[in-house]
Amino acid sequence: MKHYEVEILCAKTKDKLCFLDKVDPNSTIGEIKAMFHKSHPQWYPARQSIRLDAKGKSLKDEDILQNLPVGTTATLYFRDLGAQISWVTVFLTEYGGPLLLYLMFYFRVPFIYNTKYDFTTSKHWVVHLACMCHSFHYVKRLLETLFVHRFSHGTMPLRNIFKNCTYYWGFSAWMAYYINHPLYTPPVLPDRKLLDSHRTEKPSATRLQGQKDSLPHQESLHMALLAGVLP
Fold first, then answer.
1. Do residues 122 and 185 lie in contact, with contact meaning Cβ atoms separated by under 8 Å?
2. Distance (Å, rounded) from C-alpha 43 to C-alpha 122?
3. Strands 48-51 and 155-157: what pairing?
């Protein structure tokens, strides 16, 4: 069987990084990455992008060397993808953070609200219901990540996790702060009798004459009351 020789160059500088001799033609790109990793331990396989052209697309790990448009002396190009993190770790971090953050606000740990409210609980049942729903949602996602989902790509650049977590963690903390605030009060349904009295009341002709142009100048709270927005 005729073996291949594989030369790996840096995609940016075109410097030779590695030369692999007597490579099996049936070797995959994933196996070549493992060989390259032995010569350069700082670049583990998930961090490597191997391509046919310096500006081309990355080859797949399952691509076979002899099926590529190269001769017996193949020249491949390497680009460093940077530090990588597994997708399982990504989702566990994204979903675990909101769960823990919300519970910190729910139990009112110190340094969040006034010290006199430390480790107190809300008297409103809807606050406890919100905590149960929020916790169930993220516990379900964590369990799905561990036991249900399978990820096609093994890793993601580490720098992206900060952007992803900012959304999940930030929104959860913002929501939890107000829902679990000691001064929080649940919304109250409007008084039906009061609303009906406003709807059925018929202003007199004298009032209408003096209020032809009064609608644009009425106070916003009064308008909301008439519309049934406020109790």
1. no
2. 52
3. unpaired
Supply 164's token pair: 């992803």
Q: For 190-224, what is each residue's pLDDT tens digit?
A: 666 655 666 665 555 555 455 544 444 444 444 44
Degrees, nearest 5: CA angle 204-209-215 = 95
Q: Calculate mean pLDDT across residues 159-178.
A: 93
- Please choose, from the candidates 83, 11, 90, the residue with its C-alpha nearest in 3D space to the C-alpha of residue 44: 83
pLDDT at 138 over 90: yes
Q: Using H for helix, E for strand and C for coil, what is the string for 26-60?
A: CCEHHHHHHHHHHHCCCCCHHHEEEECCCCCCECC
155: part of which helix (H) or strand (E)?
A: strand 155-157
Which single residue is written with the structure tokens 């490597």? Answer: 48
Q: Is the dihedral of CA 154, 155, 161, 167 positive or negative?
A: negative
Strand partners, 23: 4
The Cα 74–Cα 52 span in angstroms is 9
Radius of gyration from C-alpha coordinates of the chain: 32
Give the mean pLDDT of 121-149: 95
